[in-house]
Design a protein that fits this description.
Layout: E1 2-10, H1 14-25, E2 30-33, H2 42-45, E3 52-56, H3 66-71, E4 78-80, H4 81-94, E5 101-102, E6 107-113, E7 118-123, E8 129-137, E9 160-162, E10 176-180, H5 184-193, E11 199-204, E12 210-211, H6 220-228, H7 230-238, H8 258-269, H9 289-306, H10 310-316, E13 327-328, H11 332-336, E14 341-345, E15 351-355, E16 358-361, E17 365-367, E18 370-373, H12 382-387, E19 390-391, E20 394-395, H13 396-399, E21 418-420, H14 431-456, E22 463-466, H15 468-483, H16 513-525, E23 531-534
Parallel strand pairs: 1-2, 1-8, 2-5, 8-21, 9-18, 10-11, 10-18, 11-14, 12-13
Antiparallel strand pairs: 3-4, 6-7, 7-8, 15-16, 16-17, 19-20, 22-23
Helix pairs in contact: 1-14, 14-16
The structure holds NADP nicotinamide-adenine-dinucleotide phosphate.
The site of NADP nicotinamide-adenine-dinucleotide phosphate (NAP) has 25 residues, from strand 3 and helix 5.
Length: about 525
């Protein structure tokens, strides 16, 4: 059976749902497809204990959705996984989007047909084929799990879970649990399971600076403050590199006295948004090594206040600068102070292999009942590579043979009328505002193409495609920004050197959400320069 639509959205997480909403506003026939049996994307798949946002609740939602704040109040400063899911469902219901969503429908293939200027899209689970003018891949930049290559892991007798593929409750009570990885997922998970398990061993390739976020209840007055200062709050977000509700005055760290630095950092440690350490009162933590070292010295002092065992302290104290994606989780060091919680730091005792009973390091055998991989994702491009759409000159993977590329993080040359929600070279920041900026831009481009079609009067599909030169210019800009940042020196999914064998020239836009947004506005105001519209 063949079905014809104006637009197909793949994925029903925050990105897919918002793109669906925007395209419906244009009056197009649109359908969104979701692989999982429920909406939510990351918030569906990440049901590991303690999964929480680390962006404050008032801005982890759609900006043009102010009325929903009043009808759907939130109760904690940071939202738990289930709250995010409920918010998304409430949004879907309020805008009557459910009837355009098909669940349990996994994309099998997508290919562009030049003769008809349409995309042919097929789905595995339903066997259905669709023809569509526009194809939006909102498949999540943090969706395809990164499975580490651990020798002998298949011999392990117990279950091996990945935090990113955790769609149901798993019983860890009284078990000996090994957790590999200590990014946001690992840190949240470990703090939340420690009191349930009999023994917790954290296997760390590199230890992380983990700062508190001090989650807690939100009062009606605080919510009222947000409602009445909504526009001001978003102005702050728009000026923040990570799209956070944190003032960012750009003061150099070393321009103030040592006492002032100490006082400021103590305030953040005891305050409510740990992200302010990296992008907050001081503006040069990721560009000045001296500033970064000063902050690391502060962290070292703080960690030592929680950890009295010198061996644990040595293993938990990072040797790298503070440049990875910030991890905020209250209770992290308190958890490691507990007697039944151990750390293996590969720097001192590398992992040798997995075996039937657990994990063997150069120091000893760790017997385990469960191994949990909190090893992150093939970020930015992993899901897109698996879909591997076929464009006008071959597959996406062929185009990306030397690394994944894009124009503005949302389109690729040779793939007309196809767009990404958070593709490679998108900013790394608070996710919903990036989704909105990109979806608004895509909807604007599509509106332009639809207007042109009407103007032409021949009802022929208008193709929107990024120009090679524009893409090269964008990649050059991304590289220039990366060159000026210390972030390129650490192993991280942000830079792409995280995935072994990656040859990505530059993985994300490191200039921040604030500059990305201005760039997108400039392109929009310049009549979508860099895109050609043809038919
Ligand atoms: P992540 O930040 O990429 O961290 C992965 C962890 O696994 C790191 O500790 C990494 O070590 C380790 N690792 C990777 N490969 C390994 C290997 N072969 N052997 C040993 N260790 C290995 O992944 P994540 O924690 O899932 O978080 C991903 C992103 O999702 C976050 O940064 C964030 O954007 C998002 N997230 C957000 C929240 C939230 O909002 N609170 C919660 C969860 C996730 P190295 O440091 O040495 O690379």
């Amino acid at each position: 059976m063949s079905n014809v639509l104006d637009a197909i959205v793949v994925g029903c997480g925050f990105g897919g749902v918002y793109n669906l909403y925007k395209l419906k506003q244009l009056g197009l026939s649109v359908k969104a497809f979701e692989k999982a049996p429920d909406v939510g994307g990351t918030w569906y798949w990440n049901q590991y204990p303690g999964a929480t946002t680390d962006t404050t609740a008032e801005i982890y939602r759609y900006r043009d959705d102010k009325e929903l704040l009043n009808t759907y109040p939130w109760s904690t400063r940071y939202l738990y996984r289930k709250d995010n899911l409920e918010y998304l469902k409430h949004f879907i219901e309020s805008h009557n989007l459910g009837r355009h969503i098909q669940l349990s429908a996994e994309l099998k293939s997508a290919s562009f047909d030049a003769a008809t200027s349409t995309w042919t899209v097929t789905f595995n689970s339903t066997g259905e084929t669709y023809k569509t003018t526009y194809l939006i891949l909102a498949t999540g930049h943090l969706h395809t799990p990164n499975y580490p290559d651990i020798k002998g892991l298949e011999k392990f007798a117990g279950p091996v879970y990945h935090t990113g593929v955790w769609p149901e409750h798993r019983d860890l009570k009284g078990k000996k649990v090994g957790v590999i990885g200590t990014g946001s997922s690992g840190a949240q998970l470990m703090v939340n399971i420690a009191d349930d398990v009999s023994h917790l061993v954290s296997f760390q390739r590199s230890s992380q600076h983990v700062v508190p976020h001090n989650n807690g209840p939100i009062s009606a007055e605080e919510r009222e403050f947000v409602n009445s200062n909504w526009d001001e709050i978003w102005k702050t977000v728009d000026n923040h590199p990570l799209g956070q509700n944190i003032p960012f005055p750009n003061t150099p760290t070393m321009s103030v006295s040592a006492e002032e630095r100490e006082r400021t950092w103590e305030e953040i440690w005891n305050g409510t948004n740990g992200v302010a350490f990296m992008y907050g009162p001081f503006g040069d933590i990721v560009t000045s090594e001296e500033a970064n070292r000063e902050l690391c010295a502060f962290f070292e002092k703080k960690i030592a206040q929680y950890i009295s065992d010198p061996d644990k302290l040595k293993k938990l104290t990072p040797t790298e600068l503070y440049l990875k994606r910030p991890v905020t989780m209250t209770g992290y060091y308190e958890t490691f102070a507990k007697k039944h919680v151990d750390i293996v730091n590969y720097q001192f005792t590398p992992l040798v292999e997995a075996n039937e009973k657990g994990l063997l390091t150069t120091e000893k055998q760790w017997d385990l009942d469960v191994i949990i991989l909190a090893t992150g994702y093939e970020a930015m491009d992993g899901s897109l590579k698996r879909i591997n759409p076929i464009g006008t000159h071959g597959t996406l993977n062929e185009t990306w043979a030397k690394g994944s590329t894009s124009y503005l993080g949302l389109s690729e040359v040779g793939f007309p009328n196809m767009f990404f929600s958070i593709g490679p070279q998108s900013p790394i920041a608070n996710i919903p505002p990036i989704i909105e900026v990109q979806a608004n831009f895509i909807a604007g481009l599509i509106a332009k193409a639809e207007a042109k079609k009407k103007e032409n009067g021949d009802n022929k599909i208008v193709l929107v495609e990024a120009e090679e030169q524009a893409k090269d210019g964008w990649l050059k800009k991304c590289l220039e920004v990366e060159e000026g940042s210390l972030i390129k020196t650490v192993k991280s999914f942000i830079t792409g050197n995280f995935v072994e064998g990656s040859n990505v020239p530059v993985h994300s836009w490191l200039g921040g959400f604030h500059t990305y947004q201005r760039f997108i506005k400039d392109v929009t105001d310049n009549d979508y320069v860099g895109f050609k519209l043809t038919n």
